[in-house]
Amino acid sequence: MAKTASKNISKSKHQSILIGWREWVSFPDNGNFSIKAKIDTGARTSAVHATHIRELVKNDKKWVKFRLYQSGKYLFVEIPIIEYRKITNSFGVSEQRPVINIKIKLGKNSWKTEVTLARRSGMTYPMLIGRNSLKNKYLVNPNQSYLIGTPKNEKK
Prior knowledge:
The longest helix has 6 residues, at 2-7. Helix content is 6%, strand content 54%. The strands form three sheets. It has a seven-stranded mixed sheet with strand order 2-3-11-4-10-9-8. A three-stranded antiparallel sheet has the order 5-6-7, with no helix packed on it. It has a two-stranded parallel sheet with strand order 1-12. It is mainly beta.
């Protein structure tokens, strides 16, 4: 039975990268600032804990300025707002959140992805990586953590 099941697993043109249920994510366009993220394939969209959120207008477009925080360090980011999206959180509460398109790095790969700005202060991890951000390139091992490594300036 196991042999039959393994034959049904679809093979992609690219080898999947094995990651743990939590990993370090960095922001290459923002000084490689790194934060811990929970990989959540049950969530469609990624979210990051943002504080000091302030909306502004630049060149007739809506932008947002906010602060990221991890391990006693913080970073202010200023970026255009793509849209506002109604998101239902893990507690079943719906809210309108600003959506940004920001470059993230997971291991050696980096790409732009949609991320909502959320209040995750009560959560253990400041970032949640949803399945849309994984781009079918990653395979999650739910029993492992930090499989792709820890940034040089951080400790596990």
